[in-house]
Specification:
The complex is a heterodimer. By secondary structure, chain A is mostly beta strands. In chain A, strands 2, 4, 5, 6, 9, 10 and 11 form a 7-stranded mixed sheet that branches. Chain A starts with a strand and ends with a strand. Chain B is mainly β. In chain B, strand 4 and strand 5 form a beta hairpin. Chains A and B meet through strand 5, strand 9 and strand 10 of A and strand 4 and strand 5 of B.
Chain lengths: 115, 113
C-alpha cells in the first residue's frame, strides 16, 4: 500500500516567495495532520483536519500560514510570504477515525529552506 | 499545555546491548505511542499503547503504558546497527486535546558495530 505522499521532498526558495507544500493521505483515512520539525522546537502540530474540515489550527504560527483540504485525497500547506525562520521539515500524517485506531502515519516530509 | 520529558537525549551503545528510554508527562494521557525516525524520513510508528499498565512487544521492542498514565518506557533488546535513529514518544488525551499528539524531544540512538 502507498503511504502518505508528500511533494516536493525538498524546496529552496527566497524570502518573500510563496511556498506550497502538498500531501496525499492514505486512502480511507479520515484525519490529516500537518507538522513542522525543527531542531529547536522538535515536532509541532500545525493543524489537523477531520473529513476535510479543519478541526484545530491553534498551532499555525501566523497568518502567513494557511492550509486547505479540498477533498479526501489532497491537502496543501501554503506559506505566503515565506521567511528564513520558516525553514524546517514539514510532515503530513494521516489516520483513521477513532475508535478503530487513531495512530498517525507520517509522510517522508518536505525539507524547506528559505534563503 | 501538556509537557513530555523524554530521556535520555542520546545514547551510544555497542551492538548486542539492550536499550531503555522513557517519557514522563506532567499530566495523564490515554494513548502512548512510540515512533522511530530515520535520517531524511518521517517518523514510523513502532508500538501503540491504549491501556494503563499495558505491556506490548513488537519483535525486539517492548513498551509499557505506566499505571499512573503519566509515563511510558521503550526497551530494545539485543540492539543491531539498523536500530540507529531518533526515537520519539507521543501522548494523546482525547478528552481535552482531541486527536492532537504531544511529542517528546526524542532520543538519538547510536549503535556501534
Amino acid at each position: 500500500d502507498a503511504g502518505v505522499i508528500q511533494s516536493p521532498r525538498h524546496e529552496v526558495t527566497e524570502m518573500g516567495q510563496e511556498v506550497t507544500l502538498r500531501c496525499k493521505p492514505i486512502s480511507g483515512h479520515d484525519y490529516l495532520f500537518w507538522y513542522r520539525q525543527t531542531m529547536m522546537r522538535g515536532l509541532e502540530l500545525l493543524i489537523y483536519f477531520n473529513n476535510n474540515v479543519p478541526i484545530d489550527d491553534s498551532g499555525m504560527p501566523e497568518d502567513r500560514f494557511s492550509a486547505k483540504m479540498p477533498n479526501a485525497s489532497f491537502s496543501t500547506l501554503k506559506i505566503q510570504p515565506s521567511e528564513p525562520r520558516d525553514s524546517a521539515v514539514y510532515f503530513c500524517a494521516s489516520s483513521f477515525d477513532p475508535p478503530s485506531t487513531d495512530t498517525q502515519y507520517f509522510g517522508p516530509g518536505t525539507r524547506l529552506t528559505v534563503l | 499545555g501538556q509537557q513530555l520529558n523524554q530521556s535520555p537525549q542520546s545514547m551510544f551503545i555497542q551492538e548486542g546491548e539492550d536499550v531503555s528510554m522513557n517519557c514522563t508527562s506532567s499530566s495523564i494521557f490515554n494513548t502512548w505511542l512510540w515512533y522511530k525516525q530515520d535520517p531524511g524520513e518521517g517518523p514510523v510508528l513502532l508500538i501503540a499503547l491504549y491501556k494503563a499498565g499495558e505491556l506490548t512487544s513488537n519483535g525486539r521492542l517492548t513498551a509499557q503504558f505506566g499505571i499512573t498514565r503519566k509515563d511510558s518506557f521503550l526497551n530494545i533488546s539485543a540492539s543491531i546497527p539498523s536500530d540507529v535513529g531518533i526515537y520519539f514518544c507521543a501522548g494523546q488525551l482525547k478528552e481535552t486535546s482531541g486527536s492532537r499528539l504531544t511529542f517528546g524531544e526524542g532520543t538519538q540512538l547510536t549503535v556501534n558495530p
